[in-house]
Write a structure and sequence with these properties.
Blueprint (H helix, E strand, L loop, with lengths): L1 H14 L10 E4 L4 E5 L8 E6 L3 E8 L2 E6 L4 E5 H4 L3 E2 L12 H5 L3 E10 L2 E11 L4 E11 L3 E12 L7 E16 L9 E17 L2 E13 L6 E13 L1
Antiparallel strand pairs: 1-4, 1-7, 2-3, 4-5, 5-6, 8-9, 8-15, 9-10, 10-11, 11-12, 12-13, 13-14, 14-15
């Protein structure tokens, strides 16, 4: 059965997944009279600290146009890219900040996606949110709405995603997950009873980096629905969409 083969393959790859490498940080020096630090990554967050000229700043990470930094006195806050661009490297050269690109994609920690597809003949729209635990492994939360000719439904689940080649611009991945599937018939000659069952799934996918913070994703999953009847149901799903990382 293809689903069992996918589960076995994913389990084998997880066992040999390498550890996540912590990215190196960058140190810069404040060149302007002061550098404003906010409590969060946005103009709506208040300025709570000002670093004076000559202070050393350690750049920890980036979120869209904001950078999390730490001063030489241990104060941590967020700085807008336009202000950070006015600092100097330790060599005395101005810091050059580029738009998000491949390096940001390779070091991303959070990702969200929106996909459209087919769930055993029903149209589906899916939303996922993922946390990247390591270069190879991530955990995803899934929510989907289903719409068929005779019934509607929804599903919610938790998935483990393994990317064996994270450095590839177009990279395949394997997934293993479980969750809850609810089906509400619109009309039936036999029964109009709603059904809510647990399901398990295994699948294959493809992730392609496009530009800036955007990706294309496509995947196939084979689901087993554990019904209260004598026989479980096997369901196939195809979907594709776009993802955004930060």
């Amino acid at each position: 059965m293809p689903t069992r083969i996918l589960i076995a393959l994913l389990a084998a790859l997880v066992l040999v997944a390498p550890a996540y490498a912590k990215p190196a940080t960058l140190e810069v020096v404040v060149a302007e009279p002061y550098l404003e630090m906010h409590t969060g990554p946005g103009r709506g967050y208040p300025v709570f600290h000002v670093a004076d000229r000559g202070s050393k700043i350690e750049v920890l990470k980036r979120r869209t146009d904001w950078f999390k930094v730490r001063t030489d006195r241990g104060v941590t806050g967020w700085v807008r890219d336009e202000q950070l661009a006015q600092t100097l490297r330790e060599s005395g050269e101005p810091l050059v900040i580029t738009d998000p690109g491949w390096d940001d994609f390779a070091s991303r920690r959070w990702e969200t996606s929106l996909s459209l597809g087919d769930f055993d003949g029903a149209s589906s729209i899916s939303l996922t949110g993922a946390w990247r635990m390591s270069a190879n492994l991530s955990v995803e939360l899934l929510a989907a709405q289903l719409s068929g000719e005779y019934s509607d439904g929804w599903m919610a689940g938790l998935r483990l995603v393994h990317t064996p080649f994270p450095d590839w611009r177009i990279s395949p991945y394997l997934l293993l997950g479980t969750g809850v599937l609810s089906i509400s018939p619109r009309a039936s000659l036999v029964s109009t009873e709603d059904r809510t069952d647990q399901y398990g799934q295994a699948g294959l996918g493809l992730r392609a980096y496009l530009t800036r913070r955007f990706m294309f994703r496509a995947e196939y999953t084979g689901d087993i629905v554990f019904t209260s009847r004598d026989d479980n149901e096997e369901v196939e799903e195809w979907k594709a969409g776009f993802a955004f990382f930060f």
